[in-house]
């Protein structure tokens, strides 16, 4: 299904799916609304194996603009824009106070959503949001910016080559708008927001995660009031896939 939302003065088609018990009638009240937010480069199908275990909830799973079956943004998005997309989709579906589960990038969006709108519970799965800037990384970025400015003035050929070949293969494959969107998203450090989160929060984290390391999860758990972290010892960045049965069991226990 598609929902038209207006953000940055542009209309966007956002794809979403709804799952619940087949016997649930339209007039019946579900136990709660359970919203799933996927990570960067993924789409709502990444959670497909989880949905059957939670059909006593009314599940809403959407594809963020730029991913899956949703339209690509017409302008550069930041985290706040993605939060507004989620809010508008839920508003149009008459959903308030949901349980919100966000994985990786989806965790960024879920974190900021919970600061603006009521949530029954926040589930953060190997969430992004804490930015680390080592000396080496800072130096690398500084050198890149210097080269970029220099080549732009003195060598257009070298400038084009530098820009086209910067970043990972995944980054290079993105459209210009999604490259700028990704850049805006990853630059935002949400650490300062964490103490203001009032929503009861559960963090589910893979011990071997090198994308968003466990120390990030522990830091979040320390900063967010009324939160706790549960570690998956045989998982990396995708505990809901790598330890699916345990993940489902734990998630049902904490809901």
What report would you give on this structure?
The structure is a single chain. By secondary structure, the chain is an alpha/beta fold. It has 2 domains: 2-131 and 190-254, Rossmann fold, CATH 3.40.50; 134-187, no CATH class. It has helices at residues 79-92, 105-116, 135-154, 156-164, 169-172, 176-187, 214-223, 239-242, 244-254; strands spanning 2-7, 10-19, 33-37, 58-62, 99-103, 121-125, 201-206, 227-232. Strands 1-2-4-3-5-6-7-8 form an 8-stranded mixed beta sheet, with helices on both faces. Helix 2 links the parallel strand 5 (99-103) and strand 6. Helix 1 packs across helix 2 (105-116) and helix 3 runs antiparallel to helix 4 (156-164). The longest helix has 20 residues, at 135-154. The radius of gyration is 19 Å and the shape is globular.
């Amino acid at each position: 299904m598609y929902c038209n939302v207006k953000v940055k003065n542009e209309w966007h088609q956002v794809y979403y799916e709804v799952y619940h018990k087949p016997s649930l009638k339209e007039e019946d009240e579900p136990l709660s609304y359970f919203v799933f937010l996927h990570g960067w480069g993924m789409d709502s199908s990444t959670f497909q194996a989880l949905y059957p275990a939670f059909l006593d909830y009314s599940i809403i799973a959407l594809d963020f603009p730029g991913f899956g079956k949703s339209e690509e943004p017409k302008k550069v998005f930041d985290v706040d824009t993605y939060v507004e997309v989620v809010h508008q989709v839920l508003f149009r579906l008459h959903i308030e106070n949901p349980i919100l589960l966000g994985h990786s990038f989806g965790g960024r969006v879920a974190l900021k959503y919970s600061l603006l709108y009521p949530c029954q519970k926040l589930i953060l799965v190997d969430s992004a949001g804490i930015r680390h800037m080592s000396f080496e990384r800072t130096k690398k970025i500084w050198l890149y910016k210097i080269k970029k400015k220099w080549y732009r003035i003195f060598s257009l050929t070298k400038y084009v080559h530098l820009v086209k070949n910067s970043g990972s293969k995944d980054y290079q494959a993105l459209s210009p708008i999604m490259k700028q969107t990704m850049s805006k998203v990853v630059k935002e450090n949400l650490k300062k927001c964490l103490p203001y989160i009032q929503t009861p929060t559960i963090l589910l984290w893979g011990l071997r995660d090198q994308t968003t390391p466990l120390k990030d999860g522990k830091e979040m758990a320390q900063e967010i009031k009324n939160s706790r972290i549960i570690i998956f010892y045989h998982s990396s960045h995708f505990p809901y896939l790598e330890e699916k049965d345990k993940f489902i069991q734990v998630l049902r226990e904490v809901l």
